[in-house]
Write a structure and sequence with these properties.
By secondary structure, this protein is α/β, with parallel strands linked by helices. It folds into 2 domains: about 250 residues, 4-Layer Sandwich (Metallo-beta-lactamase, Chain A); about 35 residues, no CATH class. Helices cover about 30% and strands about 25% of the residues. It contains 11 helices and 17 strands. It has an 8-stranded mixed beta sheet with strand order 6-5-4-3-2-1-16-17. Strand 10 and strand 11 form a beta hairpin. The protein starts with 7 loop residues before the first helix and ends with a strand.
Length: about 325
């Protein structure tokens, strides 16, 4: 008896789709220091990756060197999300654009942020780096507002307002779209042959089999599964307004510039203490809390101890730490 096998191209396509459904977000910390760099920590910058997509969040001084040291490289690193316009979060854009212009690594760069931040970035790039010259790549400064700012096939990126010194400060929510898993055992029971019929059912389309039967997606798809949620907050002085966006997140990345012993100073400069960040994680019932923007005035162990006393599943990020975020899981990867 001859057995029908799926064409190799179709099989690889379906396999890739399945892998994309389970491979979620990865975040690489390039700089984790507050305000000024230290010997161990660079200034604020992280890269969030999903499949071929890459997003650089903030770009503190020295970020391009951190990109090289991390092994990420510059390829496809053409979308930059800015949390706010303070210099320790944007000064690295000058060097990064200069490198892009020299190496011609990309054709276009899109920098997204609030109005005030983009004004400062415009002055930095056009007044200092370019000074009237024509950039060999397209530079798109895109002013954003709260809501979805990136909508791809299987994930979205949304911006939400946070409270810090100065206007137009944002946090970002990376969210995998809900999906319905394909159940091959049901397809086998219905006698659905491999090939385009299964592919279309995975895409949510009804199909007519060669024997004339009409098969609906509900016949072979499982229950709706929520997608992974990664929340990233830069500098902020309050947690109440972040709670709706952080609720149920698999990972919350947020600053912890001060300890409780200097809570008044944290309030004055509109920053969080480690305890405040942990209180937010506890109230929002997040999967894991990852603290960054760490001041040189404290030992990492003290920051961690203060947060873990409130929310045990806390880690303090170091430069080049990498985490994979899936629904229900946030796993730290080993350094290469």
């Amino acid at each position: 008896m001859q057995v029908c096998k799926p064409a190799e191209g179709w099989y690889n396509s379906l396999k890739l789709r399945i892998e994309r459904d389970i491979r979620l977000f990865e975040i690489v910390f390039l700089g984790t220091s507050a305000s000024a760099p230290s010997v161990q920590r660079g200034l604020s910058a992280q890269v969030v990756k999903h499949d071929e997509h890459r997003f650089l969040i903030d770009c503190g001084e020295g970020t391009q060197r951190q990109i090289l040291r991390s092994g990420i490289g510059f390829k496809r690193l053409n979308r930059i999300l800015i949390t706010h316009g303070h210099l320790d979060h944007i000064l690295g854009l000058a060097g990064l654009l200069s490198t892009f212009m020299r190496w011609e690594a990309i054709e276009e760069i899109e920098i997204m942020g609030g109005h005030w931040a983009l004004e400062r970035i415009h002055d930095l790039l056009y007044g200092v780096v370019l000074r009237g010259a024509q950039a060999p790549i397209r530079v798109n400064l895109r002013e954003i507002s709260p809501g979805v700012i990136v909508d791809e096939d299987d994930f979205t990126v949304s911006a939400f307002p946070v409270k810090h010194r100065g206007p137009d400060c944002y946090g970002y929510l990376f969210e995998k779209k809900t999906r319905r898993p394909f159940l091959p055992e049901k397809a086998d029971a219905l006698g659905i042959p491999p090939g385009p019929w299964r592919r279309d059912l995975v895409a949510g389309q009804a199909v007519t089999l060669p024997d004339g039967r009409l098969i609906q997606p509900d016949d072979v798809l499982g229950e709706v599964l929520p997608g992974a949620r990664l929340v990233h907050v830069g500098d902020t002085g309050a947690i109440e307004n972040i709670l709706p966006y952080a609720r149920g997140a698999d990972a919350l990345v947020i600053e912890a510039t001060y300890l409780e012993e200097e809570r008044d100073m944290a309030r004055h400069f509109a920053h969080l203490t480690a305890a405040m960040a942990a209180e937010l994680a506890q109230q929002a019932e997040v999967g894991r809390l990852i603290l960054t923007h760490i001041s040189r005035r404290y030992h990492t162990r003290d920051v961690l101890a203060e947060a873990q006393a409130i929310f045990s599943n806390t880690i303090v990020a170091h430069d080049f730490d990498t985490f994979q975020v899936r629904r229900g899981e946030c796993r730290q990867m080993e350094h290469l």
